[in-house]
Write a structure and sequence with these properties.
- The chain is an alpha/beta fold.
- The chain contains 10 helices and 6 strands.
- The protein has a single domain, classed as Alpha-Beta Complex (Lambda Exonuclease, Chain A), CATH 3.90.320.
- Strand 2 and strand 3 form a beta hairpin.
- Helix 1 packs across helix 8.
Length: 324
């Protein structure tokens, strides 16, 4: 019979192909380290959050500042005029971005939060606008590296011309800036609260070290400096006589990549990144996402839709039942 012609035929089974995934510093690694359970349910299972206020604030800050810079660049190229955006320009860009986000279902929590975001953006424009806009080299600057089993990626909010001071040969005259729609961690808090704030700074440092390494992979040199700008520190400026340097010190954390002591930290940051990717891959294979043993970011827990049935004992003690 015809089928006997194929009786001894052997076909080797194809080995399953490993998917090489993209992992970002903030969207994956830091999110996972803050809470593996929240990361898994939102990023892997694709649950949708009921409250988008944290997402809204971050998006509105980034998009308004990008729009203001784009307008500044267009006017400079068209007419040669270097006009710093006014409060009216900020209000117009703010309304346009809010309308765009609203159509996507991303809304502010209440009017106070909306007004606060606009005040923060106007304060930033008044403080940094006169010197920042003319020195911006690029915005939303993409970084990527093939790490073998996965792709490491990140997006720098702005690249800023860092000329004016001496730069060692292994660095480029450029600064990487990242906006944070939050308060600057306060390490002066007593006890465990202060330790948790210090942990936040460590995570932010990790982010900037990885960005510096990715920038070197792309350009051959490190950036000269990294700047984290905590926008919400500008929300309560009451004294108009406060010196600009005092405001910047209050609102920023800077990293000097010309410091040789940071070079070893940068290498360790990449190793830590790879280890965390390994843990995420293990949890993805099992689709198992445990809650953290300890709270690493109280604000994240307070806003989390999953807090009521969290298995972490510390979260259970932290979260208070809310009644109508």
């Amino acid at each position: 019979m015809t089928w006997r012609l194929f009786e001894q035929l052997q076909i080797a089974a194809e080995e399953p192909q490993r998917i090489k995934r993209f992992y970002s510093v903030t969207g994956d690694i830091l999110a996972y380290e803050i809470c593996p359970r929240q990361y898994g349910l939102y990023n892997h299972r694709r649950y949708r959050t009921a409250h988008s206020i944290q997402l809204w604030f971050g998006l509105v800050v980034h998009q308004v500042l990008n729009n203001l810079h784009a307008t500044y660049q267009e006017e400079r190229e068209r007419s040669g005029v270097k006009r710093i955006p006014t409060d009216d320009d900020v209000s117009l860009a703010f309304e346009q971005v809010c309308d765009s986000l609203n159509k996507r279902g991303i809304r502010w929590m209440d009017k106070d939060e909306r007004d606060r975001a606009q005040d923060v953006l106007k304060a930033f424009n008044r403080i940094e606008g006169p010197t920042l806009f003319r020195n911006i080299v690029d915005t939303e600057y993409p970084l990527k590296s093939d790490r073998g089993d996965f792709y490491l990626e990140g997006i720098v909010d702005i690249l800023v011309d860092g000329s004016g001071t001496s730069t060692p040969p292994f660095c480029e005259n450029v600064e990487i800036w990242d906006y944070k729609a939050s308060r600057k961690p306060d390490t002066s808090k007593p006890g465990k609260a202060g330790l948790k704030e210090a942990k936040k700074i460590e995570k932010y440092e990790f982010q900037m070290l990885v960005y510096a390494s990715l920038y070197r992979m792309k350009t051959g040199k490190f950036p000269k400096r990294g700047v984290l700008y905590f926008m919400n520190e500008l929300a309560d400026l009451r004294d108009p006589t406060t010196p600009l340097e005092a405001i910047r010190e209050r609102a920023t954390i800077t990293f000097d990549f010309t410091d040789p002591n940071l070079q070893g930290k940068i290498d360790r940051a990449l190793e830590d990144f790879s280890q965390t990717v390994g843990l995420i891959e293990e949890h993805k294979a099992l689709d198992s996402w445990p809650a953290p043993d300890a709270i690493t970011d109280p604000d994240t827990c307070s806003a989390c839709d999953l807090r009521w049935d969290c298995q972490s004992d510390e979260v259970k003690r932290f979260v208070k039942m809310r009644y109508p």
